[in-house]
Amino acid sequence: MAARFTVGGFAREWGHCHLLANYLARYVSANEGDPERHATLLSTFINELLEVIYRNHAPEGQIDLIFRKRGRHVVLQLTLPVTEQNRVFYRMAVQIVNQPDLKSWYRARLEEPAEGEDTMLGLLELAAVYTCTLTISEPPGQDRLSLFLELPEVDEMGEV
User: Fold this and answer.
1) How far apart are CA 127 and CA 157, in angstroms?
2) Which top-level group of life is the source organism from (predicted)?
């Protein structure tokens, strides 16, 4: 499944972000064993990701969301237009997510966010709390980048 929307439309209709997240989550979760639970968690993940990109994107262009299944995991590919400042932000987020003791780092930052990190805490929560993996792809010479968020298997998450 894929969705595409413009940065301008996304920013203008920001108040409907939760509706977009819920719609996409329900559609992607339709064939899962427990579609209601899967959709609820997936909507949380999508909403956090949309909040981060709302604050960190170039002023114009298109945002693409592609959902893929890899085994029992959903991989969300988000491609968006970026400025150099946005690019640095996302590189830093991926670097933080892939540090050895992310959970300790995350707990410390919840109590005292560092300058510039408060806008990425939702994204980092997905990795620290829900064990999502986050990678980045930056095609050379383009003002766009792709984030890949691999979601945990919902059935293995236990009670959340």
Assistant:
1) 13
2) Bacteria
Residue 159 counted as domain residue = no
H or E element that contains 105: helix 102-111
- Count of alpha carbons within 13 Å of 105, Cβ hemisphere only? 16
Q: Is residue 160 part of a domain?
A: no
- If DSSP codes are grouped into helix, strand and coil, which group holds residue 103? helix
Cα Rg for the chain, rounded, in angstroms? Answer: 15
Count of domains for the chain: 1
Domain range for residue 95?
2-154
Q: Beta-strand (E) ranges in 29-152?
A: 62-70, 73-81, 133-137, 144-150
**Chain center to CA of 40:** 15
The CB-side HSE value for 20 (13 A sphere, CA atoms) comes to 19
User: Is 111 domain-assigned?
Assistant: yes
Structure tokens at 104: 């300790």
pTM of the model: 0.87
